[in-house]
Amino acid sequence: MKLEKRDNQSTVITRAIATLVMLSTILGVLSSCSHMVTNSRSFDYRTDVGWIHGACLAIANDNLTPGEGITMIILGVKQSLLKGSIVGKATSGANCYALLDDRRSVNDNGKRSFYSVLFNGPAQTDIIAIGLVHLAHEPYISDGIVRGDLVGDGRQEVFTYCQATEGINFFVWSETVGSKLQRWTDYYYLGYEITSNCTEQ
């Protein structure tokens, strides 16, 4: 009887171990699948890049939600990186310079959506930047220039801007051998004249 009892206990323990191993395997597979689904979305220059003035993002994407992360490339002679998150839709010049009365009709042309941005750290009231959402590959700074392989194709992207006569042109380029390939560009109308420094190149 004692031997039979021990055999039963051994069988129960063996089955419990087998069940745990099976559950662990299933959880591992599910976790792997979840990871694949999460990262299956490709970065899209059309909908994942926008420009920023102050704490407002202008982007051709109407589906961003509060809390989504954003990486900002602060433009200038020496570039820098800043993190933040989407607060919600911006609807007026009170929280979005691009929607001030003297420029709204040009900027709010039905092609862009506008979002208030919360910065990680001190608020930035007058920055000019390019904003990136849904990043799988984070950019980095090298010698004062921000670079990053945004789509994972082995080519580094760089970020530039120039002043037109009444606004700002923004660009994202892929560096190629001996040249640059334009990936994205957009224009921010300021509503007043400024000195242009844009060149044909």
Which key terms come to mind for this protein?
about 200 residues; alpha+beta; six-stranded antiparallel β-barrel; five-stranded antiparallel beta sheet; 11 strands; about 20% helix; about 35% strand; disordered N terminus
| Rg value | 25 Å
Query: Could you tell me the mean pLDDT?
Result: 85
Helix content: 10-25%
Derived structural class: alpha+beta
What are the low-pLDDT stretches, counting only 5+ consecutive residues below 50? 1-6, 29-40
Q: What distance lies between the first and last C-alpha atoms, to the nearest angstrom?
A: 92 Å
The strand line-up of the biggest sheet is: 1-2-5-4-3-6
- Give the overall shape, derived from the CA principal axes: globular
Major sheet: size, sense and barrel closure? 6 strands, antiparallel, barrel
Q: What's the number of structural domains?
A: 2
Strand content: 35-45%
Total helical elements: 3
Topology pattern, helix = H, strand = E: HHEEEEHEEEEEEE
- Count every beta strand, where a strand is a DSSP E run of 2 or more residues: 11
